[in-house]
Amino acid sequence: MLTTIEKVNLLQKAPVFVGVRTESLARIAAIAREVSCDARQLLFRENDAADTMFLILEGRVTLARDGKEPQEAGPGELLGALALLAGESHSQSAMAAQPVRALQIEQQDLYDAMAEDFNITRGVLRALIHTTPVAMR
Amino acid sequence: MIAQMERVFSLRRSELGPASLLFFYLFLIIGAYIMGQAVGNALFLEVFPKHLPYAMIGSAVTIGVFVSAYIRLSHRLRLERLVTGTLVFFAISFAGFWWLTRLHFRPVYLLVYVWVYAMGAMGPMMGWTLANYVLTTREARRIFGFIQLGSILGGIFVGFFTADVMGHHRLQPRALLLIVALILTMCALLVKLLFQRAGERLAEVRLVPAAGHDAPRNFYQSLRAIKRSRYLLLLTSLIAVGCLATSILGYQFFLISKAAFGHNTAAMTAFIARFYGYMGLITLIFQLTLTGPLLRTFGIRLTLFALPVSLLASSVGVFFDTGLVTGSLLRGSHYILRYSLDKSSTELLYLPVSAELKSQVKSFIDTFVWRSADGMAGLLLLLFANVLKFGPGKVSLVNIAILFGWIAVAYGVRKEYLNVLRQAIERRTLDPERAAAGVGGVLDSTTSEALAASLERAGEQQVLYGLSLFEMGRDAASHPALRGLLAHPSPVVRQHALRLLSDAGDTKILPQVEKLLKDPAPEVRTEALHYLVLHTGRDPLSLLETESDFMDYSLAGSVVAYLARTAQPDNVATAQAILMGMLARPGEDAPRARAEAARAMGAIAAPSDLHQDLPSLLRDESLEVQEQALLSAGKIRSRQFLPLVIEMLAVPRLRGAARAALAGYREHAVGTLQDYLSDDSVSIAVRKQIPNVLARIATPEAAAVLANNLVQTDPGLRFDVLKALNKLRRRDPALLPREAEFADMLLVELMGYYRSLQILEAIEPHSSSVAGSRNSDSVLTRALRERMDWEFERIFRLLALIYPPRDVYNAYVGVKSGRPQLHANALEVLEHLLKPEHYRLLSYVLDPEIGHADKLNFAERFCRAGVSSKAEALRILLQSDDRWLCACSLHAIGEMHLQEMSGEVQQVPHEDSLLDETWKWTTARLAAATA
Question: In the beta sheet, which residues pair with residue A94?
């Protein structure tokens, strides 16, 4: 079992949380559940409502989109975050290519945390703005 | 009698004493000025009939010297001594002048002339300064009119009194100088009495020099502010050219009077005094009856020209005929229009100017522009009257040229006014309440048109803002643009517009209002119901029955609110019955019915038995009902609900409603909020919300509570208090208490920052020299950096309370930008903006040219302590109140297997779940390492 601070240490490296203060990340750590998946187990399916996101801790995950070349994601990568924040459906399916350990965050829990702690909202916004082209800012 | 006065003048019992003293002070001081002016002019012209221009120049210079001496003394003397001393000085001077006139000492007549004008400039100014100290901003809005009345009545009464005394040859004119001295002594006694009676109100100026450290504004600063704005430049020119024309026509009037009365000084004194008495009376009547309608009908686009055009006509008259009648017409038309229509129009011109800038510009105009214009008029008259030998009639030619200049400048001001007004409306920089106080509740048609135009193209907030500006006119306002707002998508806008139209008695909207009875928003329905009952005489219950959806509890809620508003026992009982039915309603609609009942309670004024169920609604199981009950509590403002409302601040989903409710309580909640904010036993979740609420209440009392609670052990709460103070400073700098010691707090925050720098350096050597976080940073390093960022922001927020906030914020953004050029510019700004001692302390934080070792050396000198090792740094963090840094330190100790710190780890209190979890993890790691 990871401690809150260990989770914070992992979360702070995820691009979407890079602008969030560590103390506020502890709130997200508190709602992040450690989950394990067997190989070939589906994390989420394309076009399903994006109600969860995953931060991969161990193992590799295959990301497949209808008609597109599958891609792989590994430790430290965050899956489903943008769709979850936008309140949309997943644009690809995610399946464990090997046994996977990950942190799972539910959309409603994240929204609640964002509502209670504005620093989370501001940090996420900052991260998203930094990925936006300068001309569009 | 007292009760009547309280009602008529909106005075409260506690304000009656100071307000009356100020009223009488202004009554007497203006009286002394009118009497002094009558006798001073008559005596001077008797002895020096051709030297009036010299006297005008002399009085301009003397007033400049006196005002400058007054300002200098205000930095050394307490206000009480300064004002009474000045009044006694003038009183002794006039008594001395009386004695010298008995000796036929000729130069004394020049001194009398000059002294009268100096006393006329300084006496009222001191009165208004006292009024500003004695009355709070809110009181001032109500009471200034009453005090102003004192000055008007003083002019009228003393004018007639002087004329009567002179007319019956009871006294020689020069004896009036002794009466002036006596009146001034009475004024000094009134000031003494004011300080005795209003001791608490004047406590802040009792022991310190009259001028605060930031007052008065520097002459060049004011001049720069005016030069920067085309509008202010035009406005200042308008006033300057007006003063110039005033001085010249005053000269003409006195010379014409002199010619008419010859050497009969007593008759001339009586004439001038009676003339001022009549003019004061006519001005008062004009102001009360005609100014408002004229402004509303024609707007300042025309009223700005009323005075120069009428003076043009009367100047032409004087050119052809220098008789006493035409001379009096010239001076009279000036007097009446100048102090009524023109004064109100000029006040309206200040509407788009911020309060701070307005006071700066006004003091510049009062101290410099007026005096310069008087002096300039003296020089012009010297040239035309003394050198070119123009008589009083021919001098009109000079004034006619000046009046054409006045009209041209007024045209420019009018054009620019609409531009700056539009910009101010768009930026929402007009303050409706202050504006209302300033323009005497009159909104002219020019401004109304600009507001109406803004309503047509704006979003909800801007429309509401525009409507609040419409409300600033005390008389009800109706405008076709308002009717269009009855179909606005926002219910608040619809209700607001309907209320304004209803107040204005607009019956053309009846068909629209009938439709609004079915409006989805209850506040709109209640307003519609109120309108129909008021303007059509319909019975609300029968109205309900004719509507098919009687069972619609939202309409029932509106009827409850309306019936309660009538306050008739039968109606209240009916309202109670309807309310009970709503509360007891079963089924799935029950929460909506209860929410509507809660909403209806908000529209009923306290105290009322109809509120008895509100506490249970505040604790209702449905969030919707709770939210509505909170909002209603904020409208009712009853103290009995306050503790419950404050507790709701801890519930995230209800926080917004609780904050809005408390803001609705306004000053009634400030005392209780202070108790909660300063009570360490209250949950931090509640306390952290209070600064925001106080900032929304935005009164000097709320600001004082925030300033007194700036010292907080919880850095988050400290930050929230600072943020709230910053908001208040931006909103109105005058809200912040003058005695607040923000500079001391700045030192504390700076020390905290340098201490964090030392700790970070000890934990991660050289990491403090790198800006920003790195991916490889440990959680502790990153948390420390974040704390330093936070401290840095608090330092700048404190600076923004001491120095101009906009400049400080720009510097902050420049420093944080990470761009060398912006950073350098920001440093440049700060170096010039801050006091040297503040800049020196900050430079070690900001200046990239200061080496890392030098920064650490300075930190050690400043904090008078160093941090010698990583272990010491961790020890400091373990003992700190900051639970997050403490948890991170515990984790770092476990991660680095620092067994030598196991003793300190054991002593860390760990009741908190985060600390407990980390403590257990660290203890286990240290035990495993030992094993």
Answer: A44, A63
| Main-chain dihedrals φ then ψ at residue B538, nearest 5 degrees | -80, 150
Taking the C-alpha atoms of residue B611 and residue B13, their distance in angstroms, rounded to an integer, is: 29
A interface mutation test: which of B779, B881, B912, B922 has the most A CBs within 10 A?
B779
Query: Can you give the pLDDT at residue B921?
Result: 92
Alpha-carbon torsion, ordered B914, B916, B917, B919, to 10 deg: 120
List, as one string, the DSSP characters of B814-882. HHHT--HHHHHHHHHHHHHHS-HHHHHHHHHHH-TTS-HHHHHHHHHHHHT----SHHHHHHHHHTSS-
Among residues B267, B245, B247, the alpha carbon closest in space to that of B258 is found at: B267
State the 10-residue block means of pLDDT for chain B, 931 residues long: 61 77 92 90 84 87 84 80 92 92 85 90 85 70 76 88 80 87 94 82 60 52 79 89 90 89 83 89 85 78 89 92 90 87 80 70 74 87 87 90 93 84 66 50 63 62 69 55 78 82 79 80 76 73 56 68 73 80 78 82 78 85 86 84 88 86 86 90 89 89 89 85 90 77 86 91 74 70 91 92 87 83 80 86 83 86 86 90 90 89 86 89 87 71
Nearest to B658 by CA among B705, B623, B682: B623
For B783, name the nearest residue in chain A, comparing CA atoms only. Answer: A22
Q: DSSP letter at A133?
A: -
- Nearest chain A residue to B786, by CA: A21
Q: Which of B760, B758, B786, B761 is nearest to B772 (CA)?
A: B786
Give yes or no for a cis peptide into B607 (omega within 30° of 0): yes
Phi, psi of A71 (to 5 degrees): -120, 165
Q: Are B862 and B754 in contact (CB under 8 A)?
A: yes
Distance (Å, rounded) from C-alpha A101 to C-alpha A99?
7
Number of Cβ within 10 Å of residue B905's Cβ equals: 22
Q: B918 and A5 in contact by Cβ < 8 A?
A: yes
CA distance B41 to B713: 67
DSSP E strands in chain A: the ranges are 33-37, 42-44, 52-58, 61-64, 71-73, 78-79, 93-96, 100-106
| Record: contact B778-A9, CB cut-off 8 A | yes
Taking a C-beta distance cutoff of 8 angstroms, is the pair B349, B413 a contact? yes
In B709-778, which ranges are continuous DSSP H helix?
715-731, 742-763
How far is CA B374 from its chain centroid?
A: 31
In this structure, how many other beta carbons lie within 10 angstroms of the beta carbon of residue B854? 12
Q: How far apart are CA B777 and CA B898, in angstroms?
A: 19
CB contact under 8 A, A21 and B778: no
Instruction: Provide the 10 A C-beta neighbour count for residue A26.
Output: 21
Of B783, B786, B917, the CB nearest to A4: B917
Contact B59, B115 (CB under 8 A): no
Residue at token pair 């019936």: B563
Distance from CA of B778 to the nearest CA of A (A): 7
Distance CA B893, CA B919 (A): 10
Q: Is A100 touching B (CB cutoff 8 A)?
A: no
Mean pLDDT (chain A, rounded):
89
Which residues, at least 6 apart from A73, have a Cβ–Cβ distance to it below 8 Å? A56, A60, A61, A63, A79, A94
Decide if B883 touches A, using CB distance below 8 A.
Answer: no
